[in-house]
Amino acid sequence: MSRNLAVVIPTCSQRVQDIRIGYVLQALALQPASKHFDAFEVFIWDEGLVPMFASKWVQLALDLLVRRGHRPTYLRRGPSRGVANARRELLEAVPLKHERVLLLDDDLIVVPGGVDALLDAAASVGEFGFVQGAKIELNGQRSYQNDINALTAVEADAPLRRLWFGDAAFLLVNRKALQHVRWDLVTQFAAEGVAGEDVAISLMIADREPCFGAASAAGYHMSLDVPRWQWEIHSDLLQFELLKGVVSEETLAKALPHLAIRRAGAPVPSRETANLETLSRQANMPGRT
What we know:
Layout: E1 4-11, H1 21-29, E2 39-46, H2 56-67, E3 71-76, H3 83-93, E4 100-104, E5 108-110, H4 114-125, E6 130-137, E7 161-162, E8 170-174, H5 183-186, H6 197-206, E9 212-221, H7 233-243, H8 249-255, H9 270-282
Parallel strand pairs: 1-2, 1-4, 2-3, 6-9
Antiparallel strand pairs: 4-8, 5-9, 6-8, 7-9
């Protein structure tokens, strides 16, 4: 097992003003020394129209990361084939010596000590598929329809809770648990505006491995002025369609309780069925996330 912690960050910016990853890298550089790891090995997959180095702040943050003893690897690819493909390619780029991988979004700023708190939580349970930290929205005016992320506030002394869905914004994954992921299904989340690839990934893992949420580990989400995607019911309906027969009905019901679908085989309301059929066709088309 490597004493370095692998961190994977996909990034895709269409405008210079949308680049947030500099703040993410700075937050990693400022994490305190840890008993769990010696350094970060940060793998960045950049496939946006505007490369992340278009922001001068990114280079400064990257220099700080290196000066603090961490090792970044920058992978520039294009055109974008969606964040699901980016996550798959990133994970394949991580050497097998890393038994755990920390997934971060390019707009999630981990609080000082947040990574260690997540690793403390993982150490306390021993076996796990993934352990998720809390994602706190910096923009108090931002709201999500049908958001199923149960960890949205920091609670220093909160006990671990069992999760059936993990938000890849701040997610520690056991490398062995990735064997449960059907990437041929996950990578269908490539249509414009259709989110949900991390739901598919985490549902497949949580269906077979114990997974947990740690409210003691937190990061702040810096939302964009123009959201890259919408978290709406159509994404959840697509989850049910693609994961039917792959993830158990019980796990789907626990992870997505807000859907008005009773049990497997029950009819879906006609309007939702029409939306689902349209999105299923779109999911097979290339697009940006």
